[in-house]
Structures are given as C-alpha cells and as structure tokens.
Amino acid sequence: MSEFGFTLLAADGAARRGRIATAHGTVETPAFMPVGTAGTVKGMLPGAVAETGAEILLGNTYHLMLRPGAERVERLGGLHRMMGWNRPILTDSGGFQVMSLTGLRKLTEDAVIFRSHIDGSEHVLSPERSIEIQRMLDADITMALDECTPHPATREQTAASLALSMRWAARSKSAFTRRPGYGLFGIVQGGVYLDLRSQSVADLTEIGFDGYAIGGLAVGEGQETMFAVLDHTAPLLPADRPRYLMGVGTPADLVGAAMRGIDMFDCVMPTRSGRTGQAFTRRGKLNIRNARHQDDPRPLDADCRCPACRQFGRAYLHHLHRAEEMLGPILLTWHNLTYYQDLMAGLRAAIEDGRLAEFAVAFAAEQGLGDIERL
C-alpha cells in the first residue's frame, strides 16, 4: 500500500493541479467531494456517484457515531465495505454538527458533551474519541476535531475559540494512528480576522499535518470576504500538502477558490438542491418545478452527459417533481453532481494548459446568459 501523499502536477498562478494518494486510490485535484453524511449520497447508488466522476466522498463522524454506531461499522468491515464504495472517503470530525446543537451541548476544555438529536441520549466527543471513531470508520482522510467558531463573532470570541481548536488539533495529532495510505488534516480557523488566520496556520504547521483545511467560511460572511480570507490564508499553507475548503459551495465559489490555490471542496448544495428541484447548468441555475418547463421537451443542459439530460426532457422532469415521484430528485441529484464533477474536470484541464484565466472568464460569461430556455 502506498503512503498518503500529495503530488503537485501543474500550476497556473495560485491555482494548483495535483493528485492525492490514499489507501483506497488516488484523487485528482481540484476535486469536489459529494456529501454522504450518513453513509450514503442521498438518492444515489455508489456506482452512479462514480459515474458522475467523483473519486472521493465525505462521511460524518457525528451522524455515523449515533447511527448505526462506529463500533458496528467497524464490525461490518468499515464504511467502504458497508456502503459499497471502494474509493477514498474523508470524514468530517463531527465538530460542526455538535456545535450547531444549540441547547443540547456543553463545551469544556476536554470535550463536547451533547445530547443526540435522534433520541436525546448523552454522548461525549473529545478529540481522542473523534479520531478513534474515524479510525473505526476506516476513513482515508481523518479531520482533527475543532470548535466551529460562530459567525458573526467578536475578535475576543474568535481568538478564544481558535486557541481551543489549536489545543484540540495537537490532541488529535497525538491520538491519530499512522498507517500507510491514511492521512490526518488540521483545520485553520480564525473567522474573518486575518492575523488570527495567520496564527492558526503557524500553530497547525508546527504540529504538522498531512493536509490542511480552511474552516469557518461560507457561514454568512459573503463571497467577497471569503475570497479575501483565502487570498490571505492559502499562500501561507505548505505547498506540498493538499488544501481543503470546507463546506463550499456554489459553482462560482469553486472556480474562485480554485484560482486561489484550493485543492478540495465539499458541499451539500448539488444534492440538496437536486432534491428540491434546483438544477445547476452551464447557463446558470433553474427551478424545474416552475410552470414554464411543463411543455418544454429540451434537456436541462444540452452539453451534459448525465441520464437526466441524455434520456429525458425538462417537461418530464417537471412532471416528476410536481407529482413528487422519487425519480425526480434522483435524476436532478445525478445531474447536479455530474455538473460539479465536469466543472472540476474543466478546472483541472485549464490549469494544466495554463489557461485558467480564460476558463474563468468563459465560465462567468456563460453563467450570465441565464436559463437555457432562451436559446
């Protein structure tokens, strides 16, 4: 089994084209990870997810520790075997979900004590326990446990949260068991305060991780502020390690972040939007539930390779969603994930060819054309 590692294959400005080696295969970057929070990408078979072009999925410690339980997943051979996905998996530490349980959790220096949103049972999630759970799940990439700083937050609140996250990062590193092909990522925090972001990078690189995530963004600060934080933070990170922007985002977010040196992304947007009738296309976003689609035989996106676009027209997709048939959300989820993976492939090719600036201009112009019904 090969060692976990990142290879930089090409660069165009700050943007990077790379490859991550893991225990369950390689990941070409920039990469988008579909979210499989509870051990499944909602509405999609694993083979269908692979057909979209996805090479790595995201699972979640919080949800899987509650149901079906990390010990049970381990007994059943790990998350890859249980969910039928033999490619890489990254698991979020559970910190974001636990911190969002307002009124159901208590934060201490040692851990977060919380009550399950499912049955009210009490649980303790410490850095050590989070790392243990992710090992039981057999995650190729484990995330350090951190405190997700709320937004907005004062500088004092952000600094205190950051200090706790850095202490937890060190404990996560100590608890992590080194194995060939498996990596541990630290998470940069610091809110919108650039000097705190710098401090976080310095602390994490001193501890030493296999990759570095940027957390605490896409929480309401706006794209301009997010890009400003990335402009400051990404260049500070080690060039020989992958960089992961957590929970982002729209297609425009992905293009802008890739141009700023980000290698990995995840977001519920393409799957959640697919379930509610929102489709991402090369000419922007549309709502298939709108009445104007009910007599339109054309595909969502004439240039898309997914089954929703190859086999069905917009009128049929509109009907499925209005009739609340399961196939509607399945097809739109498949389409959105395909669109996101095609966008990543386009970014990779543009970086390799040294034409990322032209790609970004063409992307923005095409998105600005609006709904393809105007053709």
Defining traits:
TIM Barrel; single chain; 15 helices; 2 domains; alpha/beta; 8-stranded parallel beta sheet; 375 residues
In a nutshell, what does this entry contain?
The chain is of the alpha/beta class and 375 residues long.
Overview of this protein structure:
41% of the residues lie in helices and 19% in strands. The protein has helices spanning 46-51, 61-66, 70-75, 79-83, 95-99, 127-137, 155-175, 194-207, 223-233, 251-259, 269-275, 307-311, 314-322, 327-353, 356-367; strands spanning 5-12, 15-22, 25-29, 31-33, 57-60, 89-92, 105-107, 112-115, 122-125, 141-143, 183-188, 211-214, 243-245, 264-266, 278-281, 284-287. The strands form four sheets. It has an eight-stranded parallel beta sheet. Helix 6 packs across helix 7.
Secondary-structure map with pairings?
Blueprint lengths: L4 E8 L2 E8 L2 E5 L1 E3 L12 H6 L5 E4 H6 L3 H6 L3 H5 L5 E4 L2 H5 L5 E3 L4 E4 L6 E4 L1 H11 L3 E3 L11 H21 L7 E6 L5 H14 L3 E4 L8 H11 L9 E3 L5 H9 L4 E3 L2 H7 L2 E4 L2 E4 L19 H5 L2 H9 L4 H27 L2 H12 L8
Parallel strand pairs: 4-14, 5-6, 6-10, 10-11, 11-12, 12-13, 13-14
Antiparallel strand pairs: 1-2, 2-3, 7-8, 8-9, 15-16
Helix pairs in contact: 6-7, 7-8, 10-15, 11-14, 13-14, 14-15
What is the total domain count?
2
CATH class of the largest domain: Alpha Beta
Strand order of the largest sheet: 4-14-13-12-11-10-6-5
Q: Which blocks of ≥5 consecutive residues have pLDDT under 50? A: none
Please state the average pLDDT score.
Answer: 96
Number of strands: 16
CATH superfamily of the largest domain: Queuine tRNA-ribosyltransferase-like
Gyration radius from CA atoms, angstroms: 20 Å
